[in-house]
Each structure stands twice: as structure tokens, then as C-alpha cells.
Amino acid sequence: MIIKWFKYSSPQTFYPLAGKMIPWFAWLAAILAIAGLYVSFAIAPTDFQQGEAYRIIFVHVPAAWMSMFIYIVMAGWAAIGLGLNARLSAMMAQALAPTGAIFTFLALVTGSLWGKPMWGAWWVWDARLTSELILLFLYLGFMALQSSIDDPRRADRAGALLALVGVVNVPIIYFSVKWWNTLHQGSTINMGVAPKMAMTMLLGMLLMALAFWMYTIAAALMRVRCIMLERERSADWVKELSVGGKS
Amino acid sequence: MQWASWSAFFNMGGYAFYVWFSFGLTALCVIWEVLALRKRSQQALRLSKLLAQD
User: Which ipTM value was assigned to this complex?
Assistant: First the structure.
């Protein structure tokens, strides 16, 4: 078992494996998104307080979850890359960052589009919104730092340190609605407490979150394949692969 | 079904702009990311092919 894992931890063997996995995750994402959108728009009832505007929840909350979750996974890969000097782990961290940044951006913008009709403001400097904005800057900082250092192994180490220091922000975002009195509404789902929302609303949110999750895996695998090709351009396996014409 | 008609669906109880902007932007971001990744991998393959032929 251990030997097998080490086998796949080299770019050369992971490249074709990732290529085989991408269509599966992409199809799963598409099917889950269609099911999630159907539940979100056709089945979930109108909210008695917020009317139809609440339907933004079906994209806002999954995007916000993914923004935090991807950061934790990214920092985890970065830590493994730093600790074991494993180049594929560092590449995985690098591959996750842009997708995480996109979900953070979407969480912020859809939140703004929800805030305007409900609160009357596009933006307020409260704890939840501010810490999520800092998350976006952490992603962008990680990407900028990584690309500003020419030596990829040094770039990996510098990026990993930034990612690990920034991880402290994730619990701050998550608990911000508890720790501070914020305009942002409390969490919709609490562990150990019965959800305060209709089952169909919950189902729509979970389906959309799963769709985003599968999409993230597919996108990260696509990106890590690009990174492998770009970094290992002079390696024999890339030469053989590109001349053979197979992707 | 929650909707009396298609126009009621598109109207989203008066919140059409906010709801459709949110979902539309998400779809755009996903499409853009996939296209950008396709382009990037094609470019990477093309460049390594050129290098391999040297």
C-alpha cells in the first residue's frame, strides 16, 4: 500500500492518473449541479422572510464553504510539501489556490448581491465580511509570491509558509458570527443542532456544495497537470509524452 | 413546483437582478476557468513538444 502511494507521488506517474480522474469528477460535478439547481429553484419553497432573494444561498453558502475548505486543503498540501520536501504536494497546493480564490471572490460578490436587498448595503466592514476579504488576499498573496520566485522549489517553500501562517484566518471566518456581533446572519447549519431550515433548502445547499467540491477536484487536477508539464519541461517523461502526442 | 409561470420564475419575486447575477457570475467563472485551463495545458504541451524536437 505504502509503495503504491509513493509510486503515485511522482509527477510522471500521477500525470496520466490525474488525466483519467478528471472526466469522472467533471461528470459528477455536472450531475450534482443539475440536481442541485433543480432542488434550489423548483422544489425549495419561498422563504417567508426574504422572499425569493434567499435563493442566493444556494450559491453563496457552498462557495463560502469551498473558499475555506480549499484553503485548509491547500495549506495541508503545502505543509506536506514543506515537511517531506515532496514536489507533487507543493504542486497540488499551487493548483488549488486559483480555484480557491475564485470561490472566495464568488462568496464575496454573491454575498454583496444578497446584502444589498436584505441589509440595504453592498458592503459593511463587519467581522465575517472582512475576514473573508482577507482570505481572498491570502490566496492572491500566495499566488503572487509563488510566481515572483523563479526557482520553483524555493517558491514552494515561501508559498507554504505564507499558506500556513494564513490558515489562522479560517477559524476566524468560521466563528466570526459567534464571536462578534455582526450584521451577517448566524450559521445556517450548526453541528449537533437540528437545522433551522426546510429539508429541501438544506438538500439544495448540500447538492450544490458537493457539485462545487467535485468541480474543485477536477479543476485542481487539470491545473496540476499543467504545472507538471511546465515545471518538468526538460524531463524525459514530458518529452516522450509530448512527442508521442498523447495527453 | 414553486412557480405559477415562466415569467414569475424569471422575475424571482422582484429580486431577479440579484438572484440571476449571482448564479450567472458563478457559471461564468466556472466556464472561464475551464477554458483557461484547457488553453494552458495545450500551450504547455505545444511548448514541451517544441523543446523535445530540438
Answer: 0.92
